[in-house]
């Protein structure tokens, strides 16, 4: 498989651009695998496969959670549904700025993917103001091909049993501990 056909952009039917954000990540020693590792180290334990991972010494000040989210959703990056799921988790990180996320999404040409995820966030977390603000800041447009992006249910954890008995509890997967017990 050549490099061009292996990018998210190629899967989406768009062109790959030279990404300033991915260049910044590269200067910090972060390739696609390094970005995924950084997301796991920043709390995306849901996607941790249990392997012993080398430390990635990149601070939030050097590469913010907003930058990490957009880097993982970047069309210039190699295509991987797992990378997109990690990007969705990092997009929903507590404390993210919708203004910064929207600006980065515009600069990195991933507005349609970011909007797709933000709309899923609004569906599953209707009371979370971040998702409403982000969807207002991103331009409307057609959703990416469903055969390329993960189904919105891949961005959530869901259970049918809690301490109270049988009930459906849905939670957006984001950095930090996932607790589906709805205590």
Characteristics:
single chain; 183 residues; mainly alpha; two-stranded antiparallel ribbon; 2 strands; 41% helix; globular; disordered C terminus
Strand content: 5-15%
The end-to-end span amounts to: 48 Å
> Number of domains in the coordinates?
1
Count every beta strand, where a strand is a DSSP E run of 2 or more residues: 2
Low-confidence stretches: 178-183
* Overall outline: globular
Indicate the percent of residues in helices: 40-55%
Order of helices and strands: HHHHHHHHEE
Reported for the largest beta sheet, the result is:
2 strands, antiparallel
Structural class: mainly alpha
**What is the overall number of helices?**
8
Kindly provide the radius of gyration, computed on alpha-carbon positions and rounded to a whole number of angstroms: 16 Å
- Output mean pLDDT: 86
Strand order of the largest sheet: 1-2
């Amino acid at each position: 498989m050549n490099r061009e056909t292996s990018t998210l952009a190629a899967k989406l039917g768009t062109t790959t651009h030279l990404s300033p954000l991915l260049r910044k990540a590269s200067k910090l020693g972060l390739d696609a695998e390094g970005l995924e590792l950084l997301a796991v180290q920043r709390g995306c334990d849901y996607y941790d496969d249990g392997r012993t991972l080398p430390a990635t010494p990149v601070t939030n000040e050097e590469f913010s959670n907003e930058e990490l989210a957009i880097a993982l959703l970047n069309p210039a990056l190699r295509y991987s549904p797992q990378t997109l799921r990690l990007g969705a988790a990092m997009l929903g990180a507590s404390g993210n700025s919708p203004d910064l996320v929207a600006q980065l999404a515009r600069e990195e040409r991933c507005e349609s993917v970011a909007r797709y995820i933000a709309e899923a966030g609004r569906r599953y977390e209707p009371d979370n103001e971040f998702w409403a603000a982000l969807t207002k800041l991103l331009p409307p447009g057609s959703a990416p091909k469903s055969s390329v992006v993960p189904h919105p249910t891949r961005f959530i954890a869901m259970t049918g049993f809690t301490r109270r008995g049988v009930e459906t509890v849905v939670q957006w997967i984001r950095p930090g501990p996932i607790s589906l017990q709805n205590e």
